[in-house]
Amino acid sequence: xxxxxxxxxxxxxxxxxxxxGFIFPSSEIYGGINGFWDYGPLGAEMKRNIKEHxxxxxxxxxxxxxxxxxxxxxxxxxxEASGHVESFADPMVDCKSCKSRFRADKLxxxxxxxxxxxxxxxxxxxxxxxxxxxxxxLMFKTFVGPxxxxxxxxxxxxxxxxxxxxxxxxxxxxxxxxxxxxxAQMGKSFRNEVTPRNFIFRSREFEQMEMEFFCSPKDxxxxxxxxxxxxxxxxxxxxxxxxxxxxxxxxxxxxxHYAKAAFDVEYEFPFGWQELEGIAHRGSYDLEQxxxxxxxxLSYFDEETKEHFLPVVIEPSAGVDRxxxxxxxDAYAEEQLQxxxxxxxxxxxxxxxxxxxxxxxxxxxxxxxVLELAKSLRKEFRTFYDEAGAIGRxxxxxxxVGTPFCVTYDFESQNDNAVTVRERDSxxxxxxxxxxxxxxxxxxx
Length: 445
Ligand code: ATP
Prior knowledge:
The chain is α+β, with helices and mostly antiparallel strands. It has two domains: 6-80 and 158-328, BirA Bifunctional Protein, domain 2 (2-Layer Sandwich), CATH 3.30.930; 355-444, Anticodon-binding domain (Rossmann fold). It contains 14 helices and 23 strands. The model has no long low-confidence stretch (mean pLDDT 94). The structure holds adenosine-5'-triphosphate. Residues 159, 191, 193, 202-203, 206, 208, 275-278, 317-319, 321-322 line the site of adenosine-5'-triphosphate (ATP).
């Protein structure tokens, strides 16, 4: 296998994503808009697979977590209580000559990225003088209703978890859950990032998958450890190579002021080890703040001990888009085949791959029975039918989008009622009777 150089790997992935319909720059016909991306047909499918897998493992596979799906715009007081109005800000600096804007705390990272080309001091793009750092609030502001005044200001949520806290009491009551239990939610979040970068790693509109697990302060440590491990294992379970993942404890100066402890799940991207997900012990800060700002009692009554208390919260907070990027980076490979031939392959886990089975007639003349076969496979597997071009090219096209199995129906199939199944990674081919094909594939998945 040839290893691709750091910089070009991201470029190659970005171009593959565009060419094959995973991800496009948003509003591209107008020149694009920085920090916003659109998922194309294959990307939308793969993103759904990630989310469905998360949802299943966090809610449906357990009996102690329930889900919600709340609104993006909330009462503006929510963001006062959460501290976002006051302090959800990054320090930013502007270059006095070229007017570029950077996060002051990331200047070294930008310079390192530019490598030898970067001026040693000053602005990373042109070497110009920088302004002093200023705080810049990352929340997108909007107005609710027809009047644009200060009373109608609202924000697009910068994280999905706050509505879990504001709904805590209601959800607990209607679901009749006892502490310890969790509430999960996934959906869009918005941050007016100063410098969106690294493809979909840092964008201005993205999706989060968050869960708040409410427990007693008596067994919080056990639950914290449980979730740190569970979340690490989740990435391994969707096929990410273990040696590219690590857990890192946040240092005292990285921790949010209310957090008692936090671990980041990190992946080794071509641009360094970066956070995929944070698992934080948030204490009872959030419920305390919302109780204070709303004037409502958000405490929990334990029927066994007859005590009222504010549960403490363990929060695993993940990014859909960062997981997506991780899976792409991790799965991408270029291989030298015989006779100077090369192939690009995405070794995506079958659970995540946008297409699970490619179905091909060797010749267009054989289309009819193969269309029937595709129709029956489609009931169970994400199936793609393709009759165009040489069979080798059809295989390559599926390798490049990560399809784990391709099924070819040839002239012999009419006689032996069997097809050739080709496995993506080993490229091994096997003859399988059509009657047992679905069972065979089921076994592989
Ligand atoms: P960073 O330090 O990278 O800005 P953060 O620590 O502010 O991230 P959190 O607020 O903990 O991030 O958000 C939880 C998760 O949401 C992150 O681990 C990441 O997966 C995702 N996320 C946060 N900001 C973005 C963004 N701008 N683009 C894409 N995903 C994001």
